[in-house]
Amino acid sequence: MKIKKAILTGGGRATRLFPITTTINKHLLPLANKPMIFHAIERAVEAGVEEIFINTNPGETELQKYIGDGGHWGITIKFFEQTGGPQGIAHVVKQAEKFIGDDPFLFFLSDNIMIGNLKEIVDEFCKSNDDCTLVLSQVPDARHFGVPVFENNKLIDVIEKPTNPPNNFAVTGIYLYGPKVFFKAYDKIEKSARGEYEISSIHSYFLKNNYKVGHKEITGYWKDTGQAEDLLTANRLLLEQMTEGSFPNHGAVDKSAEIKGKVQIGVGSRIGKQVKIQGPVMIGENCVLEDCTIGPNVTIGAGTEVYGANIKDSILLENSLIKVSINITDSLLGKGIKLIKRENGEAEAHRMVLGDKTVIEM
Predict the structure, then answer these.
(1) Which residues, 6 or more positions from 186, have their beta carbon under 8 angstroms from its beta carbon?
(2) On the chain, which terminus has fewer CB atoms closer than 10 Å, C or N?
(3) Structurally, what CATH architecture does the domain formed by 242-340 represent?
């Protein structure tokens, strides 16, 4: 058995990341200066996947523009709309049945960031006789996840978001299924109390009906990037584990600038006077930095200009302007934002134009 097909998620509203996700699909948010979903695609390709099917919200166009047809990775990518509104993770898979057919497949929630060897897990599944493999990770609070239930070290059930988890394991958003089994089980489950077809219901059905369900614990890092702090943590860990060769300098650097550690500078970017950068840091194309301190663990999107600020442990999206003496840390700043000094001297109060659910700590 070989896994050549994968379903990746590209839909949803990501309300926990408002206001950033009111104007950008969550899966396009940058981690280590590349869209989040690219990391999932790369993991799938490394594991041997040749065809990927991505679900989208109705009317979505940006995701398709960014990702393309898969030629960049030497594979085929197709998109399908999530019709009928949000009805649960299992429903996403059901809608891809016409693409999957009777083949085994990988299902990967694209907002899951994994630092570890997915190919090893896939290869092990393909050599087994299992109908399904669940990838597990230990978490501080399992109440927000599907949780495996063990009895005498044997997996006997999976429960969705339990109030009192029986252990601290979470079923991650990485699943492997053998031929035909998923869609047979889907026809047997019902919607949960919250009106969704839960993926945990599929796995519970498997375990109660003598299907062979294996499990594998991730030994590296795994994170479900549901909130801003999760994105920042994932960004930091991705930057830290990347090699020196992933941080080329294609920009112009003033001789007075101090650069230490792993620092990528994009084409057309200019690092001016009195700039200090402590890697790991990634600076996109056509950026301007002057009289500022950047890093560690910072990514700056293309076309952004920074003057006078001190920024660390943060993600800045493209085409923004920061032109004020300010310390910024643990922050996620959206596209085209402006932080500027008032022209007529010091302000007695701050003047702001903020979107819904903006968070500012001052």
Answers:
(1) 90, 93, 94, 197, 202
(2) C
(3) 3 Solenoid (2.160)
Q: What's phi and psi for 307, nearest 5 deg? A: -130, 125
Q: Give residue-wise pLDDT tens across range 315-342.
A: 999 999 999 898 999 988 888 888 887 6
For residue 270 the two structure tokens come to 């200019």
Which residue in the block uniquely carries the two structure tokens 């009106």?
Answer: 195
Six-digit token pair at 231?
A: 């994105």
Of the candidates 66, 224, 252, the residue with the CA atom closest to the CA atom of residue 143: 224
Q: Answer for the pair 158, 203: CB distance below 8 angstroms, yes or no.
A: yes
Decide: 214 and 163 in contact? Cβ < 8 Å: no
pLDDT tens, residue by residue, 224-241 = 776 788 889 889 989 998
Contact 191, 216 (CB under 8 A): no
Domain 5-240 indexed as CATH 3.90.550.10: yes
Break the chain into its structural domains and give their ranges: 5-240, 242-340
Helix (H) / strand (E) element for 114: namely strand 112-115
Phi, psi (deg, nearest 5) at residue 20:
-55, -45
What distance in Å separates the CA atoms of residue 293 and residue 277, rounded to the nearest whole number?
Answer: 6
Sheet holding 327-329, edge to edge: 258-260, 276-278, 293-294, 310-312, 327-329
Peptide bond into 162 cis (omega under 30): no
What is the full DSSP assignment across 163-193? SS-SSSEEEEEEEEE-TTHHHHHHTT----T
Question: What pLDDT, in 10s, does the model give residues 31-68?
Answer: 999 999 999 999 999 999 999 999 998 888 889 999 99
**What is the tens place of the pLDDT at every residue in 110-152?**
988 888 778 999 999 999 989 999 999 888 888 888 898 898 8
Helices in the chain by DSSP H: which ranges?
36-46, 62-67, 89-95, 97-100, 118-127, 181-186, 199-208, 228-241
How confident is the model at residue 357, as a pLDDT?
46
Rounded CA separation 40/73 (Å): 12
For the cut 50, the answer to whether the pLDDT of residue 103 exceeds it is yes
DSSP state of 222: E
Q: What is the CA radius of gyration of the chain?
A: 22
